[in-house]
Amino acid sequence: MIKWAGVDIARAGEDSSVFTVRDGGKVIYIDEWGKTDLMETTGIILQKLERFEIEANHVNLDSVGMGAGVFDRLKELHVYVNGIIAGGVPIDKERYVDTRAEMYDNLRKRFEAGTISIPDDKQLLAQLTSIRFKIASDKKLRIISKEEMKRVYKLKSPDKSDSLALAFYEGAVRNPVIRWL
Fold first, then answer.
1. By the 8 A CB rule, do 173 and 60 touch?
2. Where are the chain's structural domains?
3. Are 61 and 7 in contact (CB under 8 A)?
4. Hey, how many other C-beta atoms are within 10 angstroms of the C-beta on 144?
5. What's the pTM value of the predicted model, to 2 decimals?
6. What is the three-state SS of the chain?
7. Which of 17, 76, 164, 179 has its CA 20 to 30 A from that of 113?
8. What string of pLDDT tens digits covers the 181 residues of the chain?
9. Looking at the domain 3-167, which fold is it?
């Protein structure tokens, strides 16, 4: 099986960076760490890629906010991971408002089909069940924002579930490597 990783980078406050590895449909590793500077986070990611023998093109990294700095540093090191913009344009523009909705609906479908195996992690389960779907006026699926989750529902950022959704997202737009002669 091909291993994939999903990496959610901490933004601020109580948020955590999370690195999730899957082998096929089975999650084999989840690691969470607190605030570190971006260069240390980059180093942690590189160690994990080597440890689990994961190819860079099988890594989906949240490349918004703090993740942008990590993504840029990896690119500078010629480690070309997939930069995922959760609020960006989804692959299926007819069904989803943004990439985040597409990722989580993808995950939902895997759970329904029984093609996913996750560890018995109470925090992960709590985060997965805290994700709220809504239908927008244009009939597209959307998920309430992390900010709304915190403000309205008094929930923490779903760092582990975001990392999981990233690990299982195969509709990622690849970042082409352009080499000039």
1. no
2. 3-167
3. yes
4. 16
5. 0.91
6. CCEEEEEECCCCCCCCEEEEEEECCEEEEEEEECCCCHHHHHHHHHHHHHHHCCCHHHEEEECCCHHHHHHHHHHHCCCCCEEECCCCCCCCCCCECCHHHHHHHHHHHHHHHCCCECCCCHHHHHHHHHCCEEECCCCCEEECCHHHHHHHHCCCCCHHHHHHHHHCCCCCCCCCCCCCC
7. 17
8. 789 999 999 866 678 999 999 999 999 999 999 878 899 999 999 999 999 999 999 999 999 988 999 999 999 999 999 999 999 999 999 999 999 999 999 999 999 999 999 999 999 999 999 898 999 899 999 998 878 887 877 777 899 999 999 999 987 444 444 444 4
9. Nucleotidyltransferase; domain 5 (3.30.420)
Tokens of residue 2, six digits: 């091909």
Tokens matching residue 180: 């000039």
